[in-house]
Write a structure and sequence with these properties.
It is built from two helices and 13 strands; from the N terminus they run αβββββββββββαββ. By secondary structure, it is mainly beta. It folds into two domains: 75 residues; 101 residues. Strands 6, 7, 8, 9, 10, 11, 12 and 13 form an eight-stranded antiparallel sheet that branches. Strand 1 and strand 2 form a beta hairpin.
Length: 218
């Protein structure tokens, strides 16, 4: 009987690790204690080739809010889960005691003609360029620097101030060079440091922003 105990323990550990890996290395709800449901916004999507070169796997990154605080996570889609777009909303189960602990519970069905809400703007610069992408309730500002050979990105939430004005609220900062890359949650107090001019003005249609950022279409 004593010889069986290590095998039983090993089998339990193996089963737990398999479940843990299958769920994108997130713990099941039973480990969270009291939980709440929250909506998250997809701000980035990436594809990678599947095992043995078969098919493609998608990984998404998203941010969410609990009691005014900002949090972010990522998730690799499995099986027949439909590919997601930037700006989509997903449903999370979040731990009340530790909101960083969460689990993706469901994906919302996005609108059939949702792509029509995408808008893109471009700013040429002497040592690089700047892009602004608007995807429904999510934005991305991309800065490329030739001098530093780096790309920085600011992801966040779009707040509609009125018919002609939107306010951009920075949530996540991304920075990449040849040797380093990182994602960082932006503290609300420090938002202005990352985005000096958070208000962008535009008219409907194929317009040009009043601050000189040109809109372009694919």
């Amino acid at each position: 009987m004593g010889n069986k105990n290590p095998w039983i323990l090993g089998l339990i550990i193996l089963c737990f690790f398999t479940y843990y890996a299958w769920n994108s290395f997130t713990l099941p709800t039973v480990f969270f204690g009291e939980t709440i449901k929250k909506e998250a916004f997809v701000y980035e999507t990436k594809f990678r080739m599947g095992k043995l070169g078969k098919g493609w796997k998608q990984t998404i990154r998203y941010f969410y809010f609990v009691d005014g605080e900002r949090y972010a996570g990522k998730y690799s889609l499995k099986g027949n889960q439909k590919h997601q777009k930037v700006g989509n909303k997903i449903s999370l189960t979040v731990s009340v005691l530790n909101p960083e602990k969460h689990k993706v519970r469901a994906f919302y069905k996005y609108e059939r003609f949702y792509y029509k809400t995408d808008r893109k703007f471009y700013v040429p610069q002497s040592v690089g360029y700047k892009n602004l992408f608007l995807d429904k309730d999510v934005f991305q500002i991309e800065n490329f620097s030739i001098q530093n050979d780096s790309i920085s990105k600011i992801f966040g939430q779009v707040e509609h101030f009125n018919d002609t004005t939107i306010v951009l609220e920075p949530i996540v900062f991304y920075y990449r060079t040849k040797t380093h890359f990182s994602y960082k949650i932006i503290n609300k107090i420090d938002s202005k440091k990352y985005l000096q001019n958070s208000k962008y003005f535009y008219r409907d249609g194929m317009s040009v922003l009043t601050n000189g950022i040109e809109e372009y279409w694919n």
